[in-house]
């Protein structure tokens, strides 16, 4: 597919430009997010202080807002950074970790969406469903508790409802900008045995968003994690060695692998 070729081309551009990716993210996964950003070829900065996030967001080529370990002061930083990024034309990628679990977390995610023009939202089915429905109490943790398979029709409707590019990661990964949609079947069950692979995928999407359109960035980031996960699983003996191999596999990805190894489950335009 053309979008898979475009994702491979974006990888080449990304590695040539080495864009700065500003990330206000999850303290549980911050180191892995930084290393995944480096492995794919971008440059991370994990700058959170409210006093400096606006300057950093303006200087970056993409911004990640991750609600994983949400605090009042991190929400303040996210709002300041997001608004500064928007004014500077810097794409913003939102990861609404655990949205739907509590009223506070749900309200924070919705406030960010109301105040900031987000380029891409990446979450699991529970989290994205919560944002579309605007209610909490349907997702008690960071894991996906929603049942059923994401279809091209469903992801398209969700992207249209939220007015931006939406990514739902799971056994089959789905992405849509409301007009074009794609389901990909790359990946491995081993990705569920290492914490932070979703957060890392968000960092990868932001790295691609620095050099290409939101939809291609969604495809590039998701497919990077899927392909790297497959490679790492073949070389590992369990979660520990898989975690180590995952970064090596991200680093070793080549542009032609996206079109040749990408497993398109379904596409819609």
Automatic annotation (TrEMBL):
Substrate binds at residues 46, 196. Keywords: ATP-binding, Kinase, Magnesium, Metal-binding, Nucleotide-binding, Thiamine biosynthesis, Transferase. ATP binds at residues 122, 169. Its cofactor is Mg(2+). It catalyses: 5-(2-hydroxyethyl)-4-methylthiazole + ATP = 4-methyl-5-(2-phosphooxyethyl)-thiazole + ADP + H(+). The keyword Nucleotide-binding applies. The keyword Transferase applies. InterPro entries: Hyethyz_kinase (IPR000417), Ribokinase-like (IPR029056). Pfam families: HK (PF02110). Pathway: Cofactor biosynthesis; thiamine diphosphate biosynthesis; 4-methyl-5-(2-phosphoethyl)-thiazole from 5-(2-hydroxyethyl)-4-methylthiazole: step 1/1. Its EC number is 2.7.1.50. One of its GO terms (molecular function) is hydroxyethylthiazole kinase activity. Belongs to the Thz kinase family. Catalyzes the phosphorylation of the hydroxyl group of 4-methyl-5-beta-hydroxyethylthiazole (THZ). NCBIfam families: PRK09355.1 (NF006830), thiM (TIGR00694). HAMAP family: Thz_kinase. This is Hydroxyethylthiazole kinase. It comes from Megasphaera hominis.
């Amino acid at each position: 597919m053309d979008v898979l070729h475009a994702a491979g081309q974006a990888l080449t551009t990304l590695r040539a430009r080495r864009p700065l990716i500003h990330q206000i993210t999850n303290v549980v996964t911050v180191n892995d997010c930084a290393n995944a950003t480096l492995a794919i070829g971008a440059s991370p900065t994990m700058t959170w202080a409210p006093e400096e996030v606006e300057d950093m967001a303006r200087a970056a080529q993409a911004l990640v807002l991750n609600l994983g370990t949400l605090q009042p002061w991190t929400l303040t930083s996210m709002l300041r950074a997001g608004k500064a990024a928007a004014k500077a034309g810097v794409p913003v990628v939102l990861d609404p970790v655990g949205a739907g679990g509590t009223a506070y977390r749900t309200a924070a995610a919705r406030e960010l969406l109301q105040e900031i023009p987000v380029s891409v939202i990446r979450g699991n089915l529970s989290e994205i469903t919560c944002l579309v429905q605007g209610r909490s109490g349907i997702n008690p943790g960071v894991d996906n508790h929603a049942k059923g398979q994401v279809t091209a029709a469903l992801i398209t409707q969700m992207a249209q409802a939220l007015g931006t590019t939406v990514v739902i990661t799971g056994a089959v990964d789905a992405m849509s900008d409301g007009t074009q949609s794609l389901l990909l079947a790359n990946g491995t069950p081993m990705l569920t045995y290492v914490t932070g692979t979703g957060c890392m995928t968000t960092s990868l999407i932001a790295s691609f968003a620095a050099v290409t359109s939101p939809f291609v960035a969604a495809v590039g980031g998701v497919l990077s994690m899927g392909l790297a996960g497959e490679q790492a699983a073949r070389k590992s003996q369990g979660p520990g060695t898989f975690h180590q191999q995952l970064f090596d596999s991200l680093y070793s990805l080549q542009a032609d692998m996206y079109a040749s190894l990408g497993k398109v489950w379904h596409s819609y335009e």
